[in-house]
Every structure is written in structure tokens, then in C-alpha cells.
Design goal:
The chain is of the alpha+beta class and 89 residues long. The protein has helices at 3-6, 21-25, 48-60, 72-80; strands spanning 9-12, 35-38. β1 (9-12), α2 and β2 form a beta-alpha-beta unit. It is elongated, with a radius of gyration of 16 Å. It starts with a helix and ends in a 9-residue tail after the last helix.
Length: 89
């Protein structure tokens, strides 16, 4: 299954990493691979699943912590809700 089969569309925030939407929509072969939509500023509900995962992660990894100091296993545990204590920075 190709990229478009998995990602029919992407809803992005207004961050600078998404400025070139035309390049993001285009595959390296030149064809269209997906559609990019932008959420309105301060409208997190327009990106619901993303915000939900962020909320689950931040429940155990506090805002302001360098997430790169955590292992992939710790982050996966926080997403699944299988841990009940907040990690330190």
C-alpha cells in the first residue's frame, strides 16, 4: 500500500514546517500523493487525534522536558496509558 493509501489527507497546524504545502502534496516521482489541509489557529479540535496523543504523552512527560531524553519505549508506554506516574525531566 502506497503513501496515498495510508494518508489520504493531512491536517496540519500553521507551523513553518508546513509552509510549502505543494511540495508536501507531491511525491518524489512528481505525482500527487496526498492533500494538505490547515487547521485554524487555536482550533486544536480540528486536529483531534493529534491533540489526543499529545495530551496522553504530556500526562506522563511534562511540558518543557526535552522529549529526546526519553526512550521510544517510555513514549510508547505513555501513549498507551500503561504507566500511571509522571516521568521527571
Amino acid at each position: 500500500m502506497g503513501f496515498r493509501g495510508v494518508f489520504k489527507s493531512i491536517t496540519a497546524d500553521n507551523g513553518s514546517e508546513f509552509l510549502d504545502h505543494e511540495a508536501l502534496e507531491r511525491s518524489v516521482a512528481g505525482g500527487k500523493r496526498t492533500d494538505i489541509y490547515y487547521a485554524n489557529p487555536y482550533a486544536g479540535w480540528e486536529r483531534g487525534s493529534n491533540e489526543n496523543v499529545n495530551r496522553m504523552i504530556r500526562r506522563f512527560i511534562p511540558e518543557g522536558c526535552d522529549i529526546s531524553s526519553f526512550t521510544r519505549k517510555q513514549i510508547q508506554k505513555s501513549k498507551s496509558g500503561s504507566t500511571t506516574t509522571q516521568e521527571g525531566c
